Amino acid sequence: MRLSVLLSVLPAVLLAACTATGNSSQTGSTSSFSNSSGGVCNADALSPAGQTASQSQVERLVKQAGAAQARILAPDRMYTTDYDPTRLSIRVDEQNQIISVYCG
Fold first, then answer.
1. Considering the entire predicted model, what is its pTM?
2. Does a structural domain hold residue 73?
3. Pairing state of beta strands 87-92 and 69-73?
4. CA triplet 82, 100, 87: central angle to 5 degrees?
5. For the domain that residue 66 is a member of, what is the CATH number?
6. Contacts for 25 with CB less than 8 Å, ≥ 6 apart
7. Half-sphere exposure of 27 (CA within 13 A, CB side)
8. CA–CA separation, 67 and 89 (whole Å)
9. Burial classification of residue 60, based on how many CB atoms lie within 10 Å of its CB (0-12 exposed, 13-18 middle, 19 or more buried)
10. What range defines the domain where residue 56 resides?
11. What is the model's pLDDT at position 79?
């Protein structure tokens, strides 16, 4: 009897664990900023290397690139490798200084 109860509860517990893991990886790995007027990203003209990735700086870069959104890629953090042509990716170092920017 105990085994059947355990087997009926186990799938729900595993599903809840998978859902919690998916949410934490999304919020803990990157910071996202959105621009409602954005479209396809073009980071070719941007050269913000060495500047601090403050919220105002990121918003300015998103507008200049024409991107719809941005994400900050910090060192030693996990992030998705999906390609999004409307997203500006901003790679930073440990001191939150911008190393590079690219679309995707």
1. 0.64
2. yes
3. parallel
4. 35
5. 3.30.10.10
6. 78
7. 6
8. 10
9. middle
10. 31-103
11. 87
* Rounded Cα distance, 90 and 73, in Å: 6
The segment with the largest mean pLDDT, out of 22-26, 34-38, 77-81, 97-101, is 97-101
What tens digit of pLDDT does each residue of 36-95 get? 555 789 999 898 989 999 999 999 999 999 999 999 999 989 988 899 999 999 999 999
Domain contains 59:
yes
How far is Cα 61 from Cα 49, in angstroms, rounded to an integer? 12
DSSP category for residue 96: S
First to last CA, the chain: 52
